[in-house]
Amino acid sequence: MKKAVRWICPVVFLILCAVVFWSLHLFTATDKTMTYIDWQSGVQIAQDGTETPYDHLGEYTNMPGQSGAFRFTATLPEGLGTGYLLFETSGLELSLSLNGGELYSSAAVVPEDAAGELTVNCRILDGGNAMFPPLMRFIPEGMDEAQSMAYADYYGIPAGVTALALLLVAGLFLLSILRQKVEWSLIPLALALVGLTFYRLVQSCGYYFLPEAAVRILSWQGFSWLIPLALASYLAMNRRRDFWRLLGLAAAWSAGGLLAGYFISLAGGWYLSEYINRAVSGLFTTGFYDGLLYWFTLWLAVACALISAYWLMRSLVRQRAEAQALALKNQLILDSYRVVKQKMRDGAALRHEFKHWLTAMEALCQKEDYEGLGALLSEMKQQDAGLAQTQFTENFTVNTILQDAASRAAQAGTAFDAQAHVPVELTVPENDACVLLMNMLDNALEACAKVSKPEERFIRFKAEVKNGFFALKCENRYAGELKEDKHGRLLTTKAEPEAHGFGLPQMSAVAERYHSLLDISFTDDHVFIAQTALKLPKKKTA
Questions:
Q1: CA nearest 56: which of 70, 66, 42?
Q2: What are phi and psi of 460, to 5 degrees?
Q3: Distance between CA 51 and CA 39 in Å, rounded?
Q4: Residue 348 pLDDT greater than 70, yes or no
Q5: Does residue 205 register a pLDDT over 80?
Q6: What Rg, from alpha-carbon coordinates, does the chain have?
C-alpha cells in the first residue's frame, strides 16, 4: 500500500499541475484570430461596360500604371461571428455588397453570423500606391481587447509564479538563519528568481510604468546570461545525491508531461505544439534560443525552489520527530535513574538504622529472649538481601547506574564486568552522564538478550578520568547482522524503526557537546564496541 501511495501522490501532483497550468493558459491565448478572405474571381471593367478576367489574384503587389474599375468576388465563410472587414490598400474607391445588399465602402461592419458571396467594386485613383487586389481581413469583435489581455497575461503569469517562488526562497533563507544553519545556496537561486520575475516583464511593458532610464538599465541583455549563471551557481552548491535525485525525478515527470501535452496539442491543432515547433526550428535555423532558454530557466528555478522547500521541511519534520523521541527517551532514562537513585537512598537509610538494630539485639541478649532475637535477625536478613550490591566507584551517579545494570544483567543471565575509576565529583552534568551511560548499557543489555546461548553473553565496561578526559568503553556480545544506512550509520533492528534507534544519536550528541566523537566498531566474532572520551569542562568556582 505504501509503495502504491508513493506513485499515486506524484501522479496526482502532476495532474493538479496540468490542470492549474491549463487553467492559467486560458488567460494567455485567445481564439479570436484574423481570417484572411481570398478572392475567388475578378474582372476588369472597361468604360463601355465590357468585362475582362483578372488573372493576378493572390499576388497582392503594388501595380504601378494600373487604372480602371474592377470587381472581385469571394465567399464569406460561416461561423465568423460579429466583426469587421478591413482592406489593406490605398488610393482606391471601394464599395462592398453582401449577397447583393450594399454593406459599405472602407470598413464594412459585418452583421452577426453573416455568410455568402462578397462582391467588391473598386476604382484605382492612384496606381502608384495601391495594394492590388485589396487584401481583405475579418476582425472579430473584441479581438484587440482580448489580444491586449493575452499579451499582459503572457508576461504577468510567469512573473507571478517566479515572484511566489522568490518569496518562498526568501522565507526559506530566513528560516535557515533562525535555525542557525544558513543555507547560502539559496542566495544565487533568489537572484535568478529576481531576474526571471522582472527582466522580461520590464522588457515587455516596463516603458508604461517606469522611467526610461530604469527601463534601459533593467532591460540590459546581460541579465539574460546572469540568470542561468546564478542557477548554475546554486546547482554547484547543491552536490548532494538526494538533491540531484529529486531534480532528476522532477525533470523526468516534467518532460513526460510536456511530451504528452505536445502530442495532445499536435492532435488538436492547438497553440502549444505550434510554439514548440517554431522555437525548436528557430534554434536550429537561426540559433535564436532566448525563448527556450527563458522557459527552461524558469522551470529550473521554480523546481529548485520547490525542492529546497521540500528538503528544508523534511529536515524540520525529521529534526522535530527526533527531538521529541530523544526528549521522551531522556525522560524515561531520567525517570529510571531517579527510581534507582531512590532505591539506593532507601538502602542507605536502612543501613543507618543498623546501629539501632544492634542496640535491640543487645537488649534481647541481655533478656535472654532468643526467640525474639531470631525473629529480628530473620527480618534483617530479608531487608539486607537486596542491598548487597557491589561498590563500583565513589561517584554516586556512575555507581548507581552500574549497580542497576549489574542487577539487570544478573537477572538476564549475562556476565557483567565493570571497572570504574571516577572521582566523587564529576564536572560533566548529571543529565549528560545519565544519557551516555544508561544508553550505552541499555543497548548492551538488549543486544546480549538476543544471544541464544547464555554462556556467550557478556558485558565489559570501563570508565576512568584521566588527563582531563572522561573515557568510557563498553564491549558486549550481539547476535545477527547489524544494519547500516548508505552513510555507514547503524540502523535499529526493532520492529518499529520510526519509534526506536535514537540511543546512538543521543550518545553522539552528548559526545559532540564535549568535543568528542562516539566511536562504534564491531568484530568478526560478534563483539560490539562503543567508546568515547569526553573533554571535562573546568569546574566552576563560586
A1: 42
A2: -120, 120
A3: 17
A4: no
A5: no
A6: 44
- Mean pLDDT value across residues 99-106: 69
Residue 152 DSSP symbol? H
Find all residues with CB under 8 Å of 379, minimum gap 6, and list them. none
Q: What is the DSSP string of 193-256?
A: HHHHHHHHHHHHHHHHHS-HHHHHHHT-TTHHHHHHHHHHHHHHH---HHHHHHHHHHHHHHHH
| For residues 396-420, average pLDDT | 88
Q: C-alpha cell of 533?
A: 572520551
* Contact by Cβ (8 Å): 135, 39: no
Q: Which of 84, 102, 87 is nearest to 132 (CA)?
A: 87
Measured distance CA(501)–CA(491) in Å, rounded: 6
Statement: residue 156 has pLDDT above 60 = yes
Cell of 251: 525533470
Q: Vertex 100, ends 95 and 103: CA angle to 5°?
A: 40
- Of residues 283, 285, 286, the one with CA closest to residue 294: 283
* Grid cell locating 490: 547503524
**Residue 228 burial by Cβ neighbours in a 10 Å radius (0-12, 13-18, 19+):** middle
In this prediction, residue 130 has a pLDDT band, given cuts at 50, 70 and 90, of low
Residues 277 and 487: their CA atoms lie apart, in Å, by: 46
d(CA 404, CA 337): 9
What is the rounded (10 degree) CA torsion for 512, 518, 432, 312? 50
Matching residue, cell 532514562: 333
Residues above pLDDT 70, as percent of the chain = 66
Q: What is the DSSP string of 290-316?
A: HHHHHHHHHHHHHHHHHHHHHHHHHHH
Tens digits of per-residue pLDDT, 159-168? 778 878 888 8
* pTM score: 0.45
429 within 8 A of 472, measured Cβ to Cβ: no
- Alpha-carbon span 20 to 25, nearest angstrom: 9
C-alpha cell, 112? 452577426
Written as nine digits, the cell of 460 is 565489559
| pLDDT at residue number 407 | 82
Q: Are strands 527-535 and 519-522 parallel, antiparallel or unpaired?
A: antiparallel
Residue 81 CA, distance from chain mean position: 48
